[in-house]
Design goal:
Strand order of the largest sheet: 4-3-2-1-5
Order of helices and strands: HEEEHHHEEHHH
Helix content: 55-70%
Number of strands: 5
Distance between the termini: 35 Å
Strand content: 5-15%
Radius of gyration: 20 Å
Number of helices: 7
Keywords: Membrane, Transmembrane, Transmembrane helix
């Protein structure tokens, strides 16, 4: 009985030992205390991302959300120029919310960006089952996009947008696969 408790406590300790957070990207770095920091290159300010990683991840996809809004709105047969304007509005709103989110974070003075957290390193820290699920879902999305194009008989801009998203989905699946295969090497 005591042996089972020791095994459980060892498992819990192993899960709690997380050296790299599940966050990364172009402007995310580590500070000297191994905390994730967002460095805004335009304003030259650094913001501590400790305990707000999930919120940051949502706002870091603001550009993608603007593009997704264009595609979704175009599906309702609205003129392309209106879809682009509404997509830009979604991006602008998300950018506004992101800047407001940054203003609520702790700013770091005299931060020098050195140790960068890459997206691959962040993905390597995620559990294997989540990474495999993402690979399967990205491949499934690409397949469904191509099938949808064939069934709906799309032409023109919609055809190329669907193919572009299908190719992007395949690249995302390959990225996740790369992170999965190199997980144990690091």
């Amino acid at each position: 009985m005591a042996n089972m408790k020791n095994k459980r406590s060892n498992r819990v300790k192993q899960v709690d030992k997380k050296t790299t957070p599940e966050i990364g990207g172009m402007n995310v770095y580590f500070d000297s205390r191994q905390r994730p920091v967002y460095y805004d290159r335009f304003s030259k300010r650094a913001y501590l991302l400790k305990d707000v990683e999930k919120t940051y991840q949502l706002y870091s996809m603001r550009f993608f959300l603007g593009i997704a809004a264009i595609v979704i709105i175009y599906a309702f047969k609205l003129p392309l120029w209106l879809c682009v304007v509404l997509g830009i509005a979604v991006y602008a709103f998300m950018e506004f919310k992101f800047r407001r989110f940054l203003s609520n974070l702790t700013q770091m003075t005299n931060f020098v960006p050195e140790k960068k957290i890459s997206k691959v390193d962040a993905e390597r820290q995620k559990p294997l089952n989540k990474v495999i699920l993402k690979i399967v879902l990205f491949i499934l999305l690409a397949t469904l996009l191509v099938i949808n194009v064939k069934q709906q008989g799309y032409t023109g801009v919609v055809l190329y947008l669907n193919y572009a998203f299908a190719v992007a989905s395949v690249f995302m699946a390959l990225f996740e696969l790369f992170a999965c295969l190199t997980k144990n090497k690091k």
